[in-house]
Amino acid sequence: xxxxxxxxxxxxxxxxxxxxxxxxxxxxxxxxxxxxxxxxxxxxxxxxxxxxxxxxxxxxxxxxxxxxxxxxxxxxxxxxxxxxxxxxxxxxxxxxxxxxxxxxxxxxxxxxxxxxxxxxxxxxxxxxxxxxxxxxxxxxxxxxxxxxxxxxxxxxxxxxxxxxxxxxxxxxxxxxxxxxxxxxxxxxxxxxxxxxxxxxxxxxxxxxxxxxxxxxxxxxxxxxxxxxxxxxxxxxxxxxxxxxxxxxxxxxxxxxxxxxxxxxxxxxxxxxxxxxxxxxxxxxxxxxxxxxxxxxxxxxxxxxxxxxxxxxxxxxxxx
Length: 319
Hints:
Layout: H1 3-17, E1 35-40, H2 42-45, H3 54-63, E2 68-70, H4 77-80, H5 85-94, E3 98-99, E4 101-105, H6 114-130, E5 135-139, H7 161-181, E6 185-188, H8 199-208, E7 214-216, H9 220-225, H10 230-236, E8 244-246, E9 248-249, E10 262-263, H11 272-282, E11 286-290, H12 299-314
Helix pairs in contact: 1-5, 7-8, 10-11
């Protein structure tokens, strides 16, 4: 078989086993692990000083020894960089990487948005299935009026944050059930400037959703900057953990811009060794995705610094 045929076969084999965490010899001879490490394309895609090609970002991640990439494609993003879904899957297989997950946000509390969200959600599931992935990271609705720096509720919005959380919970259960029927799963993702930001808001949405259908995909940096203790929250919802965004942060968050508070892993105030100890206790199996959506470095420098910390401090605890 020629090289192109081999790469295509590698992609197909990788896709078949990606959800289980196992790798066949076609995918590059990686052994099964409890934890698989990935980084978000967002770091390279949104770098302020240059337009970095997708292929260069994938090479960076492969060179760092990562297992995967969180990839939430924008419209026509693949074609913009000269890829089809098939050729991008081939590149991932060649670089021994898998798709870790896909971020999915929406106004889940708004019944008028229901049909559009359902259609977009099914498209997301189909795309994840194509790549052999299973994790959908659910981003909650915005906290208020996005044109207001403090995200205050607009005059036409009569729903409180608690009302919105209560309104979206049944829809999240429905989405989780749909995902489960396709062999996938959703994880609720606390995020600054959304209606699930504080510890109390996290507790409310987790109380109102069904553990059978809605997991937890915590973002350590957003939880810390939102006033929570990431280790305590990870422990509290340990039975529902199915995905992670690892992010470090420092200081006091001043709405709405959290960029200045973000740091590469190990340079902020998040207790990552404590988190890894909890994951070891519960024998967590899944993806830990480094999401660095702001940096003062270049993307490759930022990714390298976080990976050095992971290799030196976190993998020895649990991987």
